[in-house]
UniProtKB/TrEMBL annotation:
Residues of the signal peptide: 1-24
Residue ranges of domain Blue (type 1) copper in the record: 56-165
Keywords: Copper, Metal-binding, Signal
Name this polypeptide is given: Uncharacterized copper-binding protein, cupredoxin-like subfamily
Source organism: Bosea lathyri
Molecular-function GO terms, alphabetical: copper ion binding; electron transfer activity
Pfam families (alphabetical): Copper-bind
Length: 165
């Protein structure tokens, strides 16, 4: 009996691994999948043990729109930011930090797989009334995007900009 259980668990583990790899596609990880130390066009995952400027971001539905408050954040190149997020809405929301082009492309993927959840260093999904955080270091100057990529949310206004000077 134990042998059957082991084979069953092994098969389940293999299926889970193959599903994860299939979802990951050629880039090697599901979603945006930035691991610690991965540099991107908009920076890299921050170090929670190092000082960071706190930026509070609220997610909500207001007047028929979905919003981030604030929807514009200015930072200095090299600065580490801790985004302290709170979902004050009645729906799930997420914050995905990337380039505008990456977020628009990922939004198309989300249309095909609307239940995809993000818990990567640059993304966090929150249920109503929940909190979360992202620590990110902005290593390059430019204008970057943060959006809720749950289908329909970005289109309803749930997007913002990070301007790195």
């Amino acid at each position: 009996m134990k042998r059957i259980k082991r084979i069953g668990l092994g098969a389940i583990a293999a299926l889970a691994l193959s599903t994860t790899i299939a979802l990951a596609g050629p880039g090697g990880s599901a979603g945006h999948g930035h691991g610690a130390g991965d540099e991107t066009a908009y920076g890299k995952p921050g170090d929670a043990k190092k000082p960071a400027r706190l930026v509070q971001v609220t997610m909500a539905e207001r007047d028929g729109k979905m919003v981030f408050i604030p929807d514009r954040i200015e930072v200095r190149r090299g600065e580490q930011i801790k985004f302290a997020m709170r979902n004050n809405g009645e729906l799930d929301h997420e914050l995905v930090l990337a380039t505008l082009q990456e977020n628009l492309k990922h939004a198309i993927d989300m249309q095909k797989n609307p239940d995809m959840e993000h818990d990567d260093p640059n993304a966090k999904r929150l249920a109503p009334k929940k909190t979360g955080e992202i620590v990110w270091q902005f290593t390059k100057a430019g204008e970057f995007d943060f959006s809720c990529l749950i289908p329909g949310h970005r289109e309803a206004g749930m997007t913002g900009k990070v301007i790195v000077k």
